[in-house]
């Protein structure tokens, strides 16, 4: 049964992950909203919640730490029962569970089942039987791999939800743009600038401090522009270490901007250089040219439909995931060791990208075994 054939006006979407994951689910939520003319509540993690006020399709947010998602504190049994009751009291007509291919949707499916939501949709590798009313067998990554945006869109398409606009989008306010500009002026920046974003949520994605500093010096000299280091307060020590080594080439704004100001900073930047984290999905939404220093973990998360170049590097063996699905992809696609991109490579990629303003450059992760399994072409 298609969602458009039933009265689904109050929809729960579940994406209990990081900010970048929520941004990539935006087009699928847009498809639901445009097709059903519905209200969307997003159940997400405290890590992802800060971006939700900028996602146009989200009307309400439930932020909590749930035990099947890596977080600082697990939800205890009593709190889990309270969450189930809260969701039940919202009287949702449908629940859509978004996942990456290495995640199991069944804990979230059980939550929505116990809450009595009548329509429950997700990808699932195993037969979920009664936990899902609408089961889409998950063929990824064993048959093919697609970009996360495409994966989420195709999930909701199975229930008849479509959109003609599959771009990433974020809401901004003029006041936030103004305050960001004022904070930049206080550091001496009044014109164009380049942003480096070195902070990571996982150790395996780190790029060395000395290479960040060398990259900052090269980019500043090459383009005659100041370089800004962005990040949260937790990234301040890392940012300061880069500034100290780069000397006059850059300034740190780590911990000095709120979420809205950070989005504005990336929007107005001439270029972003970042590891594969939420920053690259924000830059994709605002169409800022981006160089991604991409740790070879999940190939689904390159910048979506935006000017970008991906420079991959291998994850150290000691930091590789124990998840068997991720291990399968690693052994299929990433058998050849790739060293960290040299600062000169980063600078050359930046020069190439900035010579072609507005031009989309394919950001597919290159399959080093020439196996055409990765599809980023939607």
Automatic annotation (TrEMBL):
<keyword id="KW-0328">Glycosyltransferase</keyword>
<dbReference type="InterPro" id="IPR051199">
    <property type="entry name" value="LPS_LOS_Heptosyltrfase"/>
</dbReference>
<dbReference type="InterPro" id="IPR002201">
    <property type="entry name" value="Glyco_trans_9"/>
</dbReference>
<dbReference type="GO" id="GO:0005829">
    <property type="term" value="C:cytosol"/>
</dbReference>
<keyword id="KW-0808">Transferase</keyword>
<dbReference type="Pfam" id="PF01075">
    <property type="entry name" value="Glyco_transf_9"/>
</dbReference>
<dbReference type="GO" id="GO:0009244">
    <property type="term" value="P:lipopolysaccharide core region biosynthetic process"/>
</dbReference>
<dbReference type="GO" id="GO:0008713">
    <property type="term" value="F:ADP-heptose-lipopolysaccharide heptosyltransferase activity"/>
</dbReference>
<protein>
    <submittedName>
        <fullName>Glycosyltransferase family 9 protein</fullName>
    </submittedName>
</protein>
């Amino acid at each position: 049964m298609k969602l458009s054939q039933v009265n689904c006006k109050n929809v729960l979407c579940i994406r209990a992950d990081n900010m970048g994951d929520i941004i990539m689910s935006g087009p699928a939520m847009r498809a639901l909203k445009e097709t059903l003319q519905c209200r969307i509540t997003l159940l997400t993690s405290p890590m992802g919640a800060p971006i939700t006020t900028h996602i146009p399709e989200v009307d309400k947010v439930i932020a909590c730490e749930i035990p099947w998602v890596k977080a600082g504190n697990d939800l205890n049994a009593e709190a889990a029962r309270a969450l189930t009751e809260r969701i039940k009291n919202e009287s949702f007509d449908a629940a859509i569970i978004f996942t990456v291919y290495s995640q199991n949707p069944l804990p979230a499916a059980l939550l929505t089942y116990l809450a009595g939501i009548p329509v429950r949709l997700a990808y699932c590798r195993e037969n979920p039987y009664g936990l899902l009313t609408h089961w889409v067998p998950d063929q990824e990554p064993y048959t093919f791999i697609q970009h996360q945006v495409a994966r989420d869109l195709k999930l909701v398409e199975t229930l008849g939800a479509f959109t003609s606009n599959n771009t990433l989008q974020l809401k901004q306010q003029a006041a936030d743009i103004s305050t960001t500009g004022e904070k930049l002026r206080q550091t001496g920046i009044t014109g164009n600038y380049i942003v480096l974003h070195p902070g990571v949520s996982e150790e395996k994605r780190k790029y060395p401090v000395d290479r960040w500093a060398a990259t900052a010096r090269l980019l500043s000299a090459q383009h005659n522009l100041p370089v800004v280091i962005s990040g949260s307060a937790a990234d301040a020590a890392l940012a300061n270490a880069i500034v100290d080594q780069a000397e006059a080439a850059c300034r740190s704004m780590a911990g000095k901007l709120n979420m809205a100001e950070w989005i504005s900073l990336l929007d107005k930047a001439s270029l972003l250089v970042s590891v594969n984290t939420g920053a690259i999905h924000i830059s994709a939404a605002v169409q800022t040219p981006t160089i991604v220093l991409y740790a070879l973990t999940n190939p689904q998360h390159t910048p979506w439909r935006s000017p970008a170049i991906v420079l991959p590097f291998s994850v150290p063996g000691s930091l590789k995931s124990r998840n068997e699905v991720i291990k399968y992809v690693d052994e299929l696609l990433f058998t050849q060791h790739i060293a960290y991109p040299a600062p000169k490579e980063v600078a050359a990629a930046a020069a190439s990208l900035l010579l072609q303003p507005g031009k989309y450059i394919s950001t597919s992760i290159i399959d080093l075994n020439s196996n055409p399994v990765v599809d980023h072409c939607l």
